[in-house]
Amino acid sequence: MAKRWYQEHQRDPWRRQAKNSGYRARSAFKLKQIQDKYNLIRQGDSVLDIGCHPGGWTQVAIEVVGMDGKVVGVDLRTTEPIPGAALMVGDVMDPLILDSVLDENDGNAFNSVISDISPNLTGRYDTDQAISLELSTMALDVAVKILAPGGSFVTKAFQGTGIELLVKACKDRFSFVRRFSPIASRNASSEVYVVCKNKKPNGSISDTSPMVEIRSGLEKIGVLSMEQDDTDESVVGFRRL
Ligand SMILES: C[S@@+](CC[C@H](N)C(=O)[O-])C[C@H]1O[C@@H](n2cnc3c(N)ncnc32)[C@H](O)[C@@H]1O
Asked: Is 165 helix (H, G, I), strand (E, B) or coil?
């Protein structure tokens, strides 16, 4: 197993290229390819990078926004400092973290939210796909709250149950939505990025959060039960798939 992992890493051209270019992660090239195709981030933009560790996407975002822009990164894990970025440790769904994110941008709405958020993979596809859908929905919740009208959003998702609901929730809130698989995603990977541009004005979009909408969509297609179990635990996402 270790030998196979080592051989795959040795063969991975994006990993080599990331190392040669000074990027902290091969995923930097995924954002570069998204950016080349969709011009998601512009010079001078304020950008929130959700799930920023170890910092590849943050590095790319800083290059694009330049000196007049602002990049804030959040992750559960500590990210080594990156010149020009404000990096925070915490859960992006924590309201206190969101307050700090907005403080970093002087209380102003952001132009772009980029999310490569991903769970610790268990190797069981259904479980990983369900948790990933929940995390992407969380990222969309955050984006809807903090983006200015006209703002852009991208999030990672895995093909499977519920992805149509995520895309629909995006289409209801952004006037341009596409699915994109960067060539830097591994060949066999079922990961896809949902790329959204031009957030609709607040008055024209539903007040219901994407999390609530997608949860009820999953219930309708019979993959999620909303019945309370006997524990008193409040349900934040929809992990009881
Ligand atoms: C694939 S990595 C991101 C790689 C990064 N885009 C880069 O280029 O370096 C996904 C990250 O999402 C983070 N993450 C998962 N759940 C999170 C949460 N609730 N809040 C913040 N970050 C989270 C993980 O800790 C992990 O570091």
From this structure: helix
Owning domain of residue 90: 25-220
8 A C-beta contact, residue 199 and residue 151? yes
Residue 72 within any structural domain of the chain: yes
* 238 in a structural domain: no
| Number of the ligand 1 atom closest to the C-alpha atom of 49 | 6
112 inside domain: yes
* Residue 165 within a domain: yes
Dist. CA 195 → ligand 1 center (Å): 18
As annotated, the active-site residues are 156
- Atom 14 of ligand 1: nearest residue by CA position: 51
Residue 137, token pair as written in the block: 């929905």
Quick: pLDDT tens for 55-113: 999 999 999 999 999 999 999 999 999 999 999 999 998 999 999 999 999 999 999 99
Q: Label residues 48-76 b or e (16+ Cβ within 10 Å = b).
A: bbbbbbbbbbbbbbbbbbeeebbbbbbbe
| pTM listed for this prediction | 0.90
